[in-house]
Amino acid sequence: MESLGDAKFTETSILNEFKPLDPEEFRKQAYQTIDFIVDYYKNIETHPVLSQVKPGYFQSTLPSTPPYKPEPFEKILKDVQTQIIPGMTNWLSPNFFAYFPATVSTAAFMGEMLSTCFNSVGFNWLASPAATELEMVVMDWFADMLKLPSTFKFSGSGGGVIQGTTSEAILCTLVAARDRALDRIGSNNIGKLIVYGSDQTHSTFVKACKIAGILACNIRSLPTTIDLDFSLCPSLVCAAVEADVANGFVPIYLCLTVGTTSSNAVDPIDQFSDVATDYGIWLHVDAAYAGSACICPEFRHYLNGIERVDSLSLSPHKWFLTYLDCCCLWVKNPSLLIRALSTNPEYLKNKPSESNLVVDYKDWQVGTGRKFRSLKLWLVLRSYGVENLQSHIRSDVRMAEMFEDFVRNDSQFEIVVPRRFALVCFRWNPDSSLAPAGINVEIMNRKLLDWINSTGKIYMTHTIVGGVYMLRLAVGATLTEEPHVIAAWNLIKEAADTLLVKVMQIC
Ligand SMILES: *Cc1c(COP(=O)(O)O)cnc(C)c1O
């Protein structure tokens, strides 16, 4: 019989054997994982793009309690294959044309692995000097690629920071603008602060306003129209600002967009700087998706006027081959951001911070801890060079142009708004000789989209702009090549033909 002493001994030795980071075990599992990833990427087209599972599918496949005893890695990996992958909407599939693509690359993956390897929590310079300084260098490099003026660079009078998402970038700059105004008019006047955007500004702007304490009734969401391709009209902004000021309100922030989420509308940045200067309004440009294209000379004009804005954000996790999450934010006046967001607890005090010679990025963002995100962007920039990054953008745009031509040359379909980047907004609009009169175009397009996505062969999404329901084909998933775009068009045509036959049968 086992004595009590023996049992205790056994218990202790198990504890000693538990090594969460054993280097050789790590090597073994990491190689297995890499093999798994390579196979997934190679075979990605065998999975439906849009996951076909039903809500709650996972609950039935797993035990209801966590395992008490350890399980082998091979078994867990097998479950990823059989239980996780069926529930994945495969964003990296070359047949993914929904939303905006989340582009990736080998370089960014290696960067992601390395930053995960260090797991540095670089809230201030001292906690991770390399993470801080590389981020400063990379943000200045990227600013150069976009031909931003030196006022946005550390080597000039500004600086950049990598946030997780555009939502955080907007929130942080909004809070900086809010506090600048409240310093002047007193914090009890927060109810007087007014912010401006268009009805095409991303929904996260309204969320940021809520978090920042801007009253919902003080958010001016100015209407756009098809005449201006759904871009914000400068004279509308002037009129709204003047009316608000006349009524005793205080305008603080205008959010412009280069490449709106719905239809890639571009607000003409340079036409808002006078009103912003006159009324002390913080001008922010949200170029989450389309900003990456501005590294190409032929697209740079969309940033004309950028020298007079206060901040610009764009997300390399959208169109710049960088794994989620990565949003670059440049500000002209970092001290306003720091004034609004800095903290100085005793437990983080240190000599470099007190010397004021270093950047402490915790004062530029929502959180305290932060990932070493610049590493993946640095790897992308170094591994590919501006040359390849420009041709990456151009190749996506060329494929979108090809699709646009398919649509234009087909009398059953039409382009709804002009294509600017690699997003094509179009709709099915069969002429009345084919489709029976009185059939609603919107309903037909909804049915078309459902039919297409239910095949699992491609995934597309829709939007409604100016009351018009339209289909969005966003080209540019990293693995997408011309034949995928051609196949997507053929599938759309097949869907239209199939549905037309059905409609005829009903009538
Ligand atoms: C995608 C997108 C956003 C949202 O970005 P997150 O990083 O997910 O917060 C904001 N604005 C525009 C124009 C976008 O396209």
UniProtKB/TrEMBL annotation:
Protein name, as recorded: tyrosine decarboxylase
GO molecular function: pyridoxal phosphate binding; tyrosine decarboxylase activity
Keyword Cell membrane: no
GO cellular component: cytoplasm
PROSITE patterns hit by this protein: DDC_GAD_HDC_YDC
Gene3D superfamilies tied to this protein: Aspartate Aminotransferase, domain 1, dopa decarboxylase, N-terminal domain, Type I PLP-dependent aspartate aminotransferase-like (Major domain)
EC number(s) reported in the record: 4.1.1.25
PANTHER family according to UniProt: GROUP II PYRIDOXAL-5-PHOSPHATE DECARBOXYLASE, TRYPTOPHAN DECARBOXYLASE 1
Pfam families tied to this protein: Pyridoxal_deC (PF00282)
Cofactor: pyridoxal 5'-phosphate
SUPFAM superfamilies: PLP-dependent transferases
Family statement drawn from the similarity comment of this UniProt entry: Belongs to the group II decarboxylase family.
GO biological process: amino acid metabolic process; carboxylic acid metabolic process
Record key words, sorted: Decarboxylase, Lyase, Pyridoxal phosphate
Residues the record lists as N6-(pyridoxal phosphate)lysine modifications: K318
Organism: Papaver nudicaule
Lyase as UniProt keyword: yes
